[in-house]
Specification:
The chain is an all-alpha fold and about 325 residues long. Helices cover about 75% and strands about 0% of the residues. It has 15 helices and no strands. Helix 6 packs antiparallel against helix 7. The longest helix is centred in the last third of the chain and has 34 residues. The chain is globular.
């Protein structure tokens, strides 16, 4: 009984069971002459995704502390039409992204951590289905099932299903962007194609509001356009096919993040920082704490920020300078 209710045993029990189901499904798809439809695939994927998460959630609830507590309390406040942590949001604007999404469900179902956990479960299922769809389109159903099962049983995604954090929503939005790009990448040139790329940029901007990593997708899409079109003959003629879609994509992204920034400034009634890379590098360069959050760097942030009286960009610049000095002193 003790082993049954330990964290390790829950995962060790649930994953093999789900994996066994997955193997039977994949083998059945491979050998079946009837080739069951996608509804069958979807039902099996949903079962394989839910099983380990339900077992994990039923026996493990992460404590509300650090960022988890901030996201929960901010979402609860937003669900009541209130705004808290204005000074913190001004320094880290992305803090408002996930709680804004979560607050909609808190308003409907109540500000209970269980609501966030069940939402994580639903988002996890949607993410796995998107992977199945994408890989099936690129290859076939068998590889689609294999990819979906791998994601469904990925340990970190299961473990994070019990926390009030951005991981689940970010993963879903990331996959939505990839699927959307897959659908529009071969769209013929013209106004319709440029509109699709503009909307894609807007979507990446929304993703960036949850976790500020949208620039990575912009770079990846730009690299794809260059590599794909450079293989064709008459490269210079195709240069416009690369630049115009990418410029349109960047325009959508910049307009999206600008609108979001203006909205955050209106909500918080404070100037919002354009970047917080200084604090990120400061924490990442802290060898004593293995590059993770620590009270020393958090206290330094509070000292420099002076309870919100120093502009966020000035704070970022000073922390970046401190981080560079730390790296140079002990490379």
């Amino acid at each position: 009984l003790i082993l049954l209710y330990s964290r390790e045993s829950i995962y060790l029990i649930s994953v093999p069971v789900a994996a066994l189901i997955a193997l039977f499904v994949i083998a059945g798809i491979r050998k079946s002459h009837l080739r069951p439809g996608r509804y069958f695939d979807f039902s099996m994927i949903i079962s394989i995704t839910i099983l380990p998460r339900v077992l994990w959630i039923s026996n493990n609830v992460s404590p509300l502390q650090s960022d988890f507590y901030t996201y929960h309390t901010l979402a609860a406040a937003l669900s009541r039409g209130e705004v808290i942590y204005e000074r913190l949001i001004a320094l880290f604007p992305h803090l408002l992204g996930y709680p804004s999404f979560l607050s909609v469900f808190y308003r409907i179902f109540g500000s209970d951590v269980l609501v966030a956990i069940l939402l994580n479960l639903s988002i996890g299922v949607a993410s796995v289905l998107l992977v199945y769809y994408l890989v099936t389109e690129l290859s076939d159903r068998r590889f689609g099932m294999i990819s979906a099962v791998i994601l469904a049983l990925w340990p970190s995604l299961i473990f994070y299903s019990t926390v009030v954090a951005t991981e689940a929503l970010f993963t879903l939005l990331f996959l939505v962007v990839i699927v959307y790009f897959y659908r529009v990448r071969d769209c013929p040139s013209g106004i319709k194609a440029y509109l699709f790329y503009f909307l894609l940029g807007m979507l990446i901007g929304i993703l960036n509001a949850v976790r500020p990593m949208g620039i990575l997708l912009l770079i990846s899409i730009g690299a794809y356009l260059v590599i794909t079109l450079s293989r064709e003959s008459e490269y210079l003629r195709n240069l416009g096919k690369i630049l115009l879609p990418f410029i349109t994509l960047c325009m959508g992204y910049l307009i999206s993040i600008t609108m979001i920034k203006q909205s955050i400034q209106t909500i918080t009634n404070r100037s919002v920082g354009t970047s917080f890379i200084g604090y990120s590098i400061l924490v990442g360069s802290n060898y004593e704490h293995s590059g993770t959050w620590n009270t020393d760097d958090a206290n330094l942030l509070d000292e420099v920020y002076q309870d919100g009286f120093v502009p966020p960009d000035v704070v970022n610049s000073e922390l970046l300078s401190t981080a560079i000095d730390r790296i140079l002193d002990d490379p």
